[in-house]
Amino acid sequence: MTWNRFGSIMVFIPTLTLKNVPKDLHGRLKKSAESNRRSLNSEILVRLEQDISRPVLDPVAHAATLRAFATRLPRVSHQRVTRYKRQGRA
């Protein structure tokens, strides 16, 4: 922060310039910004923030959790499921 000559504080915010954005991506971002009633800049900032703040997933731990969940599920007889699906069909 610095003081400007009018006695107020100036805050410098970093600027990011995107180059070589594919037309298709630009179009999709623009359409998304319009549907969310945001500027293109705001849409990109929101999406970046969402992506960066997303928790990092440990695939090994996640797989172990899914396996533990799957073992707690009741066993299903596929023959019974097929029979139930076909009941009432001509």
Mean pLDDT: 88
Q: How do the SSEs run, as a string of H and E? A: EEHHHH
Main sheet: strands, sense, barrel: 2 strands, antiparallel
Shape: elongated
Distance from N terminus to C terminus (CA atoms, Å) equals 77 Å
Strand order, main sheet: write it out: 1-2
State which percent range the strand residues make up.
Answer: under 5%
Radius of gyration: 26 Å
Counting H and I runs of at least 4 residues, what is the number of helices?
4
How does this model look, in words?
With 90 residues, this protein is mainly alpha-helical. The chain has a domain at 22-73. Helix content is 56%, strand content 4%. The protein is built from 4 helices and 2 strands, in the order E-E-H-H-H-H. The protein has helices spanning 23-35, 40-53, 59-72, 78-86; strands at residues 2-3, 9-10. The protein has a two-stranded antiparallel ribbon. Strand 1 (2-3) and strand 2 form a beta hairpin. Helix 1 crosses helix 2 (40-53). The radius of gyration is 26 Å and the shape is elongated. The model has no long low-confidence stretch (mean pLDDT 88).
Descriptive key words:
90 residues; mainly alpha; two-stranded antiparallel ribbon; 2 strands; elongated
